[in-house]
């Protein structure tokens, strides 16, 4: 076979540049086509949860829009980074992507704590309008500037409810007095548990099932789809429908990774993240609507508390807090005005 023919065959296989470089005695530089950009994703989500499955949607979407360019690797169950350590890892460039919470962001950007407060965001639609509109553009700016992280899409994690391992008549925050309520491990989360009237106990998500089973904690708060996916219903007897936090997670990428991409790649990565969030949101909303009845039929007690009493107590506690002092003037009113 003539050398031109061989070269043509090698080029068709994407190996032409390497072979020609070798033949010419040049230093071997891996061509773009061969060097896939690795995107590792770390999340504490359990495999059966929508915000775990959404990462497969991200991967499939990106494999389709940018074939051969990215090697997306998904690590669930906090198997790569511990819950809450992802933002620092992304800032250092040790991790490419994760979905981070408002509580994670507030540690570095205190004014973001407005989104950790109970009873501010009204429902999933309000949440999407706030974060996908001018307020979102404004509040994500300091995240990019101070955290070395670029948020790409907002996913609805669900509306958080209180679940208890034993039966208890809970109508108002006073009824949660002394209840050891597990919260994720940061002061912003613990503050929410306290605002609900409980005694908050910090614990990583992966340890909650066992803690409920053994009685180290009396309860935990999470959206119902996450409680289903992590099987918390097996070790709980009651759900108190406090609906205290319409929770979000932000699909984010290390700015080191993002800024090294071409504008076209950035746009494809962002579009894939948005498709993943959309998949999560649609499924989660559908799931949430059906789960109360599903849990009831499985024998769980469903309690409808005095939500107005919870709202009043929680809002008062936040408005008097040091956190509220960091909220930009007028932001709360602007969030409330979003329809
Ligand atoms: C949790 O630990 O309760 C929480 O719901 C907090 C969220 O911010 C998020 O980390 C979530 O866990 C995990 O993704 C597991 O579902």
Provide the fold topology.
Blueprint: H1 3-12, H2 16-23, E1 37-42, H3 50-65, E2 70-75, H4 86-92, E3 97-101, H5 102-106, H6 124-132, H7 134-147, E4 149-164, E5 180-183, H8 187-195, E6 199-202, H9 208-214, E7 219-223, H10 224-229, E8 238-254, H11 255-259, H12 263-297, E9 301-303, H13 307-319, H14 322-325, H15 331-337
Give structural notes.
- This protein has 339 residues and is an alpha/beta fold.
- The protein folds into two domains: 1-34; 35-337, Bacterial extracellular solute-binding protein, family 7 (D-Maltodextrin-Binding Protein, domain 2, 3-Layer(aba) Sandwich).
- The chain has helices at residues 3-12, 16-23, 50-65, 86-92, 102-106, 124-132, 134-147, 187-195, 208-214, 224-229, 255-259, 263-297, 307-319, 322-325, 331-337, and strands spanning 37-42, 70-75, 97-101, 149-164, 180-183, 199-202, 219-223, 238-254, 301-303.
- Strands 3, 4, 5, 6, 7, 8 and 9 form a seven-stranded mixed sheet that branches.
- Strand 5, helix 8 and strand 6 (199-202) form a beta-alpha-beta unit.
- The chain is globular, with a radius of gyration of 23 Å.
- Residues 1-27 have low confidence and may be disordered.
- The chain binds 3-deoxy-alpha-D-manno-oct-2-ulopyranosonic acid.
- The site of 3-deoxy-alpha-D-manno-oct-2-ulopyranosonic acid (KDO) has 13 residues, from loops.
């Amino acid at each position: 076979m003539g050398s031109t023919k061989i070269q043509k065959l090698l080029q068709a296989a994407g190996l032409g540049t390497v072979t020609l470089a070798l033949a010419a005695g040049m230093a071997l530089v891996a061509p773009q086509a061969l060097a896939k950009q690795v995107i590792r994703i770390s999340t504490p989500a359990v495999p059966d949860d929508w915000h775990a499955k959404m990462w497969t949607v991200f991967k499939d979407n990106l494999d389709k829009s940018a074939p051969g360019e990215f090697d997306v690797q998904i690590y669930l169950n906090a198997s790569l980074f511990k819950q809450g350590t992802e933002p620092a890892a992304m800032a250092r460039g040790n991790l490419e992507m994760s979905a981070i919470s408002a509580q994670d962001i507030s540690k570095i950007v205190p004014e973001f704590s407005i989104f950790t407060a109970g009873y501010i965001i009204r429902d999933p639609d309000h949440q999407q309008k706030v974060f996908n509109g001018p307020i979102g553009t404004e509040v994500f700016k300091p995240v990019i500037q101070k955290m070395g992280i670029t948020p790409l899409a907002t996913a609805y994690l669900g509306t958080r409810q209180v679940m208890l391992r034993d039966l208890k008549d809970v109508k108002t925050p006073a009824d949660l007095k002394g209840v050891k309520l597990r919260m994720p491990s940061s002061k912003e989360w613990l503050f929410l548990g306290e605002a609900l009237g409980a005694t908050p106990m910090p614990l990583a998500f992966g340890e909650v099932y066992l803690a409920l089973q053994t009685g180290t904690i009396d309860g935990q708060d999470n959206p119902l789809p996450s409680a289903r996916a992590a099987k918390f219903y097996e070790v709980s007897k009651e759900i108190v429908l406090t609906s205290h936090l319409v929770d979000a997670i932000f699909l984010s990428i290390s700015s080191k990774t993002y800024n090294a991409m071409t504008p076209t790649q950035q746009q494809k990565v962002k579009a894939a993240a948005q498709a993943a969030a959309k998949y999560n949101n649609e499924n989660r909303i559908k799931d949430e609507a059906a789960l109360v009845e599903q849990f009831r039929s499985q024998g769980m007690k469903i309690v409808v508390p005095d939500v107005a009493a919870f709202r009043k107590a929680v809002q008062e506690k936040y408005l008097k807090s040091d956190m509220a002092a960091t909220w930009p003037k007028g932001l709360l009113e602007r969030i409330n005005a979003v329809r």
